[in-house]
């Protein structure tokens, strides 16, 4: 039983993404901006699978990938910011859409400059993760603020974009400080007891699973609805 639990923990970043993937395959969600969610889920699954696979089977990796699996985590963070930002921006009409687009453009420029001049993409970048979290949190808060100002009878608990943004906001709020201080957490010079660091990684794993569940629910709410024809 312990081996099964450990296996589920080790591969949680992979099988969690199978939940929205299965919802996509079974219910075939549609919508004017669902494409951004699908654009995230598929490559995110591939990147996470490669990252976890390399962690456990590093001795099978070719020479070019011997530097580690952190490049896949950096790529995952990048596509998360890009695609979810595009999803939020295109979900509805905003009064200051130019602000969101400029913020996304600034993030793209930051990533390009940071990994070209200052950091290696093969090293887990806390600067990159922190910046991405701030961008997504701002996007979600902007979305929620627009929602509160909107006079509509919409049941937001069933609104796909609201569900997705709630899951995304929770995930980023929880993991922001984990990745910001991940190196001090695992550095014995600053932290003699690694039990807290390991606990934080468990928190991260659980939060990612919860995020994927919210994402799956949002995709499910975008499923095609069949009209029931009245009987004659």
3D architecture notes:
The protein is mostly helical and about 230 residues long. The protein has one domain (about 1-220). The chain contains nine helices and no strands. It has helices at about 1-10, 10-25, 35-55, 70-90, 95-120, 125-150, 160-180, 180-185, 195-220. Helix 2 packs antiparallel against helix 3 (about 35-55). It is globular, with a radius of gyration of 19 Å. The N and C termini lie far apart (about 55 Å). Residues about 225-230 have low confidence and may be disordered.
As for the number of domains, it is 1
Q: Strand portion, in percent?
A: under 5%
Instruction: Compute the number of strand runs.
Output: 0
* Oligomer description: single chain
- The best one-word shape is globular
How are helices and strands ordered from N to C? HHHHHHHHH
Major sheet characteristics: none
Helix share of residues? over 70%
Q: Spans of 5+ residues with little confidence (pLDDT < 50)? A: 227-232
Number of contiguous helices? 9
The structure class reads: mainly alpha
Using only C-alpha atoms, the radius of gyration works out to: 19 Å
- What is the average per-residue confidence, as pLDDT, rounded to a whole number? 87
- The span between the termini is 56 Å
Task: Present the secondary structure layout.
Blueprint: H1 2-10, H2 12-27, H3 34-56, H4 70-91, H5 97-118, H6 126-149, H7 160-180, H8 182-185, H9 195-221
Helix pairs in contact: 2-3, 2-9, 3-4, 4-5, 4-6, 5-6, 6-7, 7-9
């Amino acid at each position: 039983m312990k081996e099964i639990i450990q296996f589920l923990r080790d591969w949680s970043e992979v099988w969690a993404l199978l939940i929205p993937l299965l919802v996509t395959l079974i219910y075939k969600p549609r919508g004017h901006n669902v494409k951004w969610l699908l654009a995230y889920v598929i490559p995110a699954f591939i990147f996470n699978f490669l990252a976890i696979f390399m962690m456990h089977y590093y001795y099978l990796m070719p020479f070019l990938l011997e530097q580690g699996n952190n490049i896949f985590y950096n790529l995952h963070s990048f596509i998360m910011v890009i695609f979810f930002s595009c999803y939020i921006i295109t979900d509805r009409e905003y009064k200051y859409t130019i602000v969101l687009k400029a913020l996304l453009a600034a993030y793209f420029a930051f990533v390009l400059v940071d990994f070209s001049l200052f950091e290696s993409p093969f090293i887990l970048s806390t600067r990159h993760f922190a910046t991405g979290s701030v961008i997504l949190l701002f996007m979600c808060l902007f979305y929620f603020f627009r929602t509160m100002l909107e006079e509509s009878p919409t049941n937001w608990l069933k609104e796909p974009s609201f569900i997705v943004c709630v899951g995304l906001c929770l995930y980023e709020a929880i993991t922001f400080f984990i990745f910001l201080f991940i190196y001090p957490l695992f550095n014995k010079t600053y932290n003699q007891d690694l039990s807290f660091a390991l606990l934080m990684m468990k928190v991260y794993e659980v939060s990612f699973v919860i995020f994927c569940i919210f994402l799956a629910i949002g995709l499910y709410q975008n499923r095609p609805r069949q009209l029931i024809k009245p009987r004659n």
